[in-house]
Amino acid sequence: MEERINRFNDVPMKRRDYVRLAIVLVLMLALFAVSAALVVWIAETYFWIPVKPS
């Protein structure tokens, strides 16, 4: 187990790994944007808090 982890760390990142990393980052960013928009919408709709973009 330990040897397998060390061998995996020695392998340089391939292009596929960079693509997967970029996809994960984009998904996290999209999830954050959707959750922020949902919070703003709920605040404006149910609590009547005017949230204006700066």
Total of helices:
2
- Using only C-alpha atoms, the radius of gyration works out to 20 Å
Give me the count of strands.
0
Number of domains as seen in the coordinates: 1
Give helix and strand order, one letter per element, not per position: HH
Mean pLDDT: 80
Low-confidence stretches: none
Distance between the termini: 52 Å
Strand content: under 5%
Question: Pairing-aware structural class of the strands and helices?
Answer: mainly alpha
What sort of overall outline do the alpha carbons produce when their principal axes are compared? rod-shaped
Q: What composes the largest sheet?
A: none
SSE diagram, text form:
Layout: H1 2-10, H2 15-46
Structure overview:
- The chain has 54 residues and is an all-alpha fold.
- The protein has one domain (2-46).
- 76% of the residues lie in helices and 0% in strands.
- It contains two helices and no strands.
- It has helices at residues 2-10, 15-46.
- The radius of gyration is 20 Å and the shape is rod-shaped.
Short account of what is shown:
With 54 residues, this protein is mostly helical.
Key terms:
single chain; 54 residues; mainly alpha; 0% strand
